[in-house]
Design a protein that fits this description.
About 25% of the residues lie in helices and about 20% in strands. It is α/β, with parallel strands linked by helices. Among the domains are: about 70 residues, 2-Layer Sandwich (Alpha-Beta Plaits); about 290 residues, 3-Layer(aba) Sandwich (Rossmann fold), CATH 3.40.50; about 140 residues, Glucose Oxidase, domain 1 (3-Layer(bba) Sandwich), CATH 3.50.30.30. One of its GO terms (biological process) is system development. InterPro entries: PA_dom_sf (IPR046450), PA_domain (IPR003137), Peptidase_S8/S53_dom (IPR000209), Peptidase_S8/S53_dom_sf (IPR036852), Peptidase_S8_Ser-AS (IPR023828), Peptidase_S8_subtilisin-rel (IPR015500), Peptidases_S8_3 (IPR034197), S8pro/Inhibitor_I9 (IPR010259).
């Protein structure tokens, strides 16, 4: 009987999943093939009943595809990297291309996705956003500062010792929370508290691709050895910390958006990047643990939604009522650079605040060039101008053949004889900005001016340099090069002016913030909103220097960073506040409230400027505008969406039934599901109309939207106000919407 049962199990595995395998799967023909990580999407309800769990089914299938049996000593039962069961059904594993192709041909397999590598998108912001500690009637008060909501941060881990993660005065961990604290090197289980209610790490995909991690430089635990995750977590939900600063800069009160919200840290990013298989496993776990908001400051190139592990994981989270926000990316100011563009993700770009850190260049010809810096060490000789040299004119080789490398101040590229005792002008690009200064210092230079390239424009990012250094815009950089080449003895010095508040205009769209149009769905405007992302003060690990350079021995409890990585957790924390104040709102309603109340005018009451050009920015950069959390508390009307709406959107995007099933896990075909007129008919808070520039095709488009009244009961009337883009006419029917009760809906058409 036992022998028969064993045969039945093996036979069932072969029969149910592997109807026919190509001859090329003979083990002798694939032994030389390279294995790489893949994510396999499976239709989980097709599991044969003979398998006690889905994992047994998956591993048996892998064994069969590899042409082995369970008794084969070369393949262990732990052949999967991750098994997914909440937002995604399937597994990840190391496969050859032939094995991946064979799996994809099986009836129960919906998709086989390559395991892509993603990268991180890297005091005063609550005040700038109008969130006041002692506000008795605003968003903080209405939401009880986000108490008992859990923000899941998928990043580089967390440093639990930070004052930003103190649990003093917090109540017990919410009873509904199912997460746990995973212990590991440098992170005992006691690291969690009533503030950090969960901490996990996901490195299966990373180690499968890169090999066992070097634990002398990173922790195989939730502990943060980079700093990025600690920074983003404290922006979203850090406690109030008084007298915070980064080596004296930006001194004041540091606070997250939702100071009483709980934090769950999911470490998915390592020295080699952030692997989709690990990110998807973290999504799966965060939803299972009971998170309310998921914050992801990670991204990469844009692919169709059914091939995008972040989009797939986020869909499963939103389906469970969880708000998902993600960074738009730092590839601006170029067009079509925005990432994380699916309509169920809230995509966040970056803007400035009214604070900067001036560090001006004084040239020997009397010209003053404005710059920014967070250098906090000893300054240059007071009252003395130093010789100034362009790094491109100081290559290590005598023939000047490596002038390009030296212009970028790459490691080992500078001639010490040419730069010793001088201020060196370096071009931005290729290697990290702060590392350039370290290269100059090792070659004997006394200071550095870092000049933007043409593609960087005029946007400036303040860095915690390891030598006296400042950053200047592209135009200024070109002027300084001309001065060096024309002056007989060019000289300069740098004057560091500390922290400056009340800067106007503000906000400004950050130069690096990624821009639309949406590469995957032009009818869907992305980014959705912008939030503070330039020079943001937040918590930092004790064991990591503020510059991120390995040789930096300085230590600080707070650091100042820039990026859409910093903007995203602002919106994550605000979403927690809005969910706390309005528990019945869906993720789409929360996003709608943030978008429809956002503003596009700066402190001069003019359209926000684009830092890259100095000209007015556009919707392709700021989306609906800059978030205004106090107004978002009472948006009046919201554009709501359900999961069925998103499925209709996918069907209207000409995706196959299998592709839709990969994202949405819905078994009905698009033929039987409600369709939209087109992707642009999704009930989204922004409206994009795409026309052919050559005038071909339709010159008129009509879209409809449905709004839900979330204001107080009683009669309320809304009237449409339209400012058509130049060269277009817009008509709204009806022009007036009347509501008699909260929850009532109304529809309008826009032509």
């Amino acid at each position: 009987m036992a022998s028969w049962l064993c045969f039945a199990l093996l036979f069932a595995a072969s029969l149910s999943l592997v109807s026919s395998l190509p001859p090329s799967l003979n083990p002798t023909t694939i032994i030389e093939e390279k294995r790489t990580n893949y994510i396999v999407r499976v239709q989980h309800d097709l599991k044969p009943s003979v398998f006690p769990t889905h994992q047994h089914w998956y591993e048996s299938t892998l064994l069969t595809v590899r042409g082995t049996t369970p008794s084969d000593p070369s393949i262990t039962t732990a052949s999967t990297i991750h098994v997914y069961s909440t937002v995604f059904h399937g597994f990840s594993a190391k496969l050859t291309a032939t094995e991946a192709q064979a799996l994809e041909s099986l009836p129960a397999v919906l998709a086989v996705l390559p395991d892509r590598v993603r990268h991180l998108h890297t005091t005063r912001s609550p005040q700038f956003l109008g969130l006041k500690i002692r506000d008795e009637s605003g968003l903080l008060a209405e939401s009880d500062f986000g108490a008992d909501l859990v923000v899941a941060v998928l990043d580089t881990g967390i440093s639990p010792e930070s004052l930003s993660f103190s649990d003093k005065g917090l109540g017990p961990v919410p009873a509904r929370w199912r997460g746990r604290c995973e212990a590991g090197r440098g992170f005992p289980a006691s690291s969690c508290n009533r503030k950090i209610v969960g901490a996990r790490f996901f490195c299966g995909g990373y180690e499968a691709m890169a090999g066992a991690m070097n634990q002398s430089v990173e922790f195989r635990s939730p502990r943060d050895s980079d700093g990025h995750g600690t920074h983003t977590a404290s922006i979203a939900a850090g406690r109030y910390v008084f007298e915070a600063s980064m080596l004296g800069f930006a001194r004041g009160v540091a606070a997250g958006m939702a100071p009483k919200a709980r934090i769950a840290a999911y470490k998915v990013c390592w020295t080699s990047g952030c692997f989709d298989s690990d990110i998807l496993s973290a999504f799966d776990q965060a939803v299972s643990d009971g998170a309310d908001v998921i914050s992801l400051s990670v991204g990469g190139g844009v692919v169709p939604y059914y091939l995008d592990a972040i989009a797939i994981g986020a869909f499963g989270a939103v389906e469970r009522g969880i708000f998902v926000s993600a960074s738009a990316g730092n590839e601006g100011p170029g067009e079509m650079t925005v990432t994380n563009v699916s309509p169920w993700i809230t995509t966040v770009g970056a803007g400035s605040m009214d604070r900067t850190f001036p560090a001006d260049v004084l040239l020997g010809n009397g010209r003053t060039i404005p710059g920014v810096s967070l250098y906090a060490g000893g300054g240059l000789p007071v009252g003395r101008f130093l010789p100034l040299v362009y790094a491109g004119n100081a290559p290590i080789s005598d023939d000047g053949s490596d002038g390009y490398s030296s212009s970028l101040c790459m490691e080992g590229s500078l001639n010490p004889k040419a730069v010793r005792g001088k201020i060196v002008l370096c071009d931005r690009g290729s290697n990290p900005r702060v590392e350039k200064g370290a290269v100059v210092g090792r070659a004997g230079g006394l200071g550095m001016i870092l000049a933007n390239g043409a593609s960087d424009g005029e946007g400036l990012v303040a860095d915690s340099h390891v030598i006296p250094a400042t950053s200047v815009g592209a135009t200024a950089g070109e002027y300084i090069r001309e001065y060096i080449n024309s002056a007989r003895k060019p000289t300069a010095t740098i004057v560091f002016r500390g922290t400056q508040l009340g800067v106007r205009p503000a906000p400004v769209l950050a130069s690096f913030s990624a821009r639309g149009p949406n590469p995957e769905t032009p009818d869907l405007l992305k980014p959705d909103v912008i939030a503070p992302g330039l020079n943001i003060l937040a918590a930092w690990p004790d064991g990591v220097g503020p510059s991120g350079v390995a040789s930096d021995r300085r230590r600080t409890q707070f650091n100042i960073l820039s990026g859409t990585s910093m903007a995203c957790p602002h919106v994550s924390g605000l979403a927690a506040l809005l969910k706390g104040a309005n528990p019945g709102w869906s993720p789409a309603a929360i996003r709608s409230a943030l978008m429809t109340t956002a503003y596009t005018m700066d402190s001069r009451n003019e359209t926000m400027l684009d830092e890259a050009t100095g000209n007015a920015s556009t919707v392709l950069g700021f989306g609906a505008g800059h978030v205004d959390p106090q107004r978002a508390l009472d948006p009046g009307l919201v554009y709501d969406l359900t999961v069925d709406d998103y499925v209709a959107f996918l069907c209207s995007s000409n995706y196959s039934d299998k592709s839709v099933l990969t994202v949405a896990r819905r078994t009905e075909s698009c033929g039987s599901h409600r369709r939209l007129g087109g992707p642009g008919d999704l009930n989204y808070p922004s409206i994009s109309a795409v026309f052919q520039m050559d005038g071909s095709g339709a010159l008129t488009k009509r879209v409809a939207r449905t709004v839900t009244n979330v204001g107080a009961g009683g009669r309320t009337v809304y009237r449409a106000t339209v400012r058509p883009p130049r060269g277009s006419t817009i008509r709204v029917v009806p022009e007036t919407l009347e509501f008699l009760r909260s929850g009532q809906t109304a529809r309008f058409e826009l032509t």
